[in-house]
Write a structure and sequence with these properties.
Blueprint (H helix, E strand, L loop, with lengths): L8 E5 L20 E2 L2 E2 H11 L4 E6 L4 H6 L4 H10 L2 H12 L2 E6 L6 H6 L2 H4 L4 E4 L3 E3 L5 H12 L2 E7 L9 E7 L5 E9 L10 E9 L2 H7 L11 H11 L7 E5 L4 E3 L3 H14 L4 H13 L2
């Protein structure tokens, strides 16, 4: 088995403007919108830590200071809770600051996901790294990121996560052309297209917001012109790496994910996610579910 560099760092792009959630996101980052009582981005950091990645870089932008504050200590609040003997809430308040070593870099202007990833180059260096998008939450019981890192350790190159979507949804995603390997849940990616129409999509396997990337992606991104929407698209760079095959930073493989994914990128999916999380919380379900059933019966 080849000796590949270990994956030790995670990058979380969090510089988007969150326009779909205005006016709530006028002054509050969309990544800080709560899923019940915890901001969405904390679930993403917890996922990285669970996969063994304790060095986390967040790519932020203007009006994102509250993200840094959330993952910092809050001495005055902690003192109040400690004085009240409220140990449960004190633990919850301290937990974000103790999760990992957090770093931050600013993406001065939103120029696409590819540019956000490129902003991580100095911190990441010449080592492979994981990239986790905050719009996608992966159920911790499914351990997708661990599987992706395992695939990188044996195959090298970059590893994507793919989910099968209905034909009428392919235009919302980057879509992959794939070839089978000797592992049932792992495929080789030979091509990618960003948000194709249903009749032009090469498959129904869509890229979701988890990546394990070879550092060669930085050189490709530096030479990738703006694509769809005038932004530097990560999909375009991954397409170039896939076409290189086994040389110069390739190949590109993907884990076929059939587990539980929660989308928070638009209002309807965000609401679904909040309801699902609340319904599965032992401390909430007994009271919440009967109320929800009664509410729905009255509609």
């Amino acid at each position: 088995m080849a000796d590949f560099d270990p994956v030790t760092k995670a990058v979380i792009p969090a510089a988007g403007l969150g326009t779909r959630f205005l006016p709530a996101t006028k002054a509050t980052p969309k990544e800080m919108l709560p899923i019940v009582d915890k901001p969405a981005i904390q679930y993403v950091v917890e996922e990285a830590v669970s996969a063994g990645l304790l060095d986390v870089l967040m790519v932020t932008g203007k009006n994102k200071r509250s993200i840094e504050d959330h993952f910092d200590r809050a001495p005055e609040l902690e003192d109040v809770l400690e004085a009240k003997g409220d140990d449960d809430r004190l633990t919850q308040v301290r937990e974000p600051a103790d999760l990992a070593t957090l770093h931050y870099v600013r993406q001065g202007k939103p120029r696409g996901l590819g540019h956000a990833v490129l902003c991580a180059k100095q911190h990441v260096g010449d080592r492979p790294f994981a990239c986790l998008l905050g719009d996608d939450l992966i159920d911790p019981r499914d351990e997708l990121l661990k599987r992706m890192i395992q695939a990188r350790n044996t195959r090298g190159g970059s590893i994507l996560a793919l989910m099968e979507v209905p034909p009428d949804q392919v235009s919302m995603y980057g879509v992959a052309t794939i070839e089978a390997t000797d592992e049932s849940d792992l495929v080789r990616v030979t091509d990618l297209v960003e948000k194709p129409s249903a009749d032009q999509a090469p498959s129904n396997w869509a890229v979701i917001g988890r990546y394990v990337l070879d550092p060669a992606v930085f050189e490709v991104l530096e030479n990738t012109p703006p694509g769809r929407g005038g932004e530097i698209q990560l999909t375009d760079a991954l397409r170039e790496l896939a076409r290189r095959g086994d040389a110069d930073g390739g190949p590109v493989h993907a884990v076929l994910f059939r587990g539980r994914r929660y989308d928070t990128g638009n209002k309807i999916d965000y609401l679904r996610t909040v309801v699902q999380f609340a319904a599965e919380r032992p401390d909430l379900a007994d009271e919440f579910l009967p109320w929800l059933r009664e509410f729905l019966n009255k509609r």
